[in-house]
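tool_call: predict_structure(chain=1)
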Amino acid sequence: MDLVAVFSSLRRHKIIVLMVLLLTIGGDLFVVYGLPQQYESKAQYLLSPPPPPPTDEEIQKNPSLAKLNANNPYLRVATLSVVTDVLAQRVGADETRKKLIAKGADQDYAIATTNAIGSGQLIEITGTGHSPEESDRTRDIVVDQMVSELHDMQTVNGADERYLIKAIPVTQSAEPLHKVTVTMRSVIAVTVAGLILLFALISIADAIAPWRRRRAGLDTLAAPEPPRQLEQRPTGTAGVPAYNGTTYNGTAVNGGYNGTAVPSTPSMPAIPDVEKTMPVLLEWRQPPGQEDDSTIILPLSKVREN
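tool_result:
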């Protein structure tokens, strides 16, 4: 279907176009002003490894250092990126998410590692909400849970605080960010749905139009034209007076002419002693109601004298 056909179809169905247009505009306005807006608050934390084990000199100066539990399983991994991955999975788990929602956090919060600084040592927390305050509250709840999870996963063997990996704050958004992209995606989705609905309704209207015409009898074959009527009557020619069935050259002939009876019907009479021959013509007229009502005169034959 080309553009000309599309615009022609739209012009034929102006009411459908107007209705769908108003419905789509109403849906877009509802998305922009009716649905709750989305805000985001971000915070980034750097995982810092613990200090190295105490030297013999430090132990001699402080014998209590020798009694510290250094059994932190995450100090034996190759890189800190493993710790950030494990921490993100623990905070983002379903059970933890339900717990945080119960505390007042928004369910769409996110926590993930990022390579903005170092190689996987940075973890980013995104708090979401329908207002700036709600997004800030969600971010703070998730940060507290992240710090708690980081501590619990390292102290599984009773490691002391000296041998734990710490989360150091790096950046934090001063003001929550309004997520316009979410609103724009919703507006685009509503608009596309309106276009699909428009062309679907137009297709349905085009499909049922012939059916309605057939039901109303508009698509039935036209009745055949009546046979063309041929009317035979004499027509005067040069030197030959015309006969109209009742008079001949102004003289009544119902009683006869020169002793010969002349019929009073409009059929062709035999008129003796007028000419040796007289052309007989056919006059054909189209039936009433036709566009062209012209008269066609055709020569048929000659009537010879008896």
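agent: Confidence is low (pLDDT under 50) at residues 236-240, 273-284, 300-306. Proceeding to next step.
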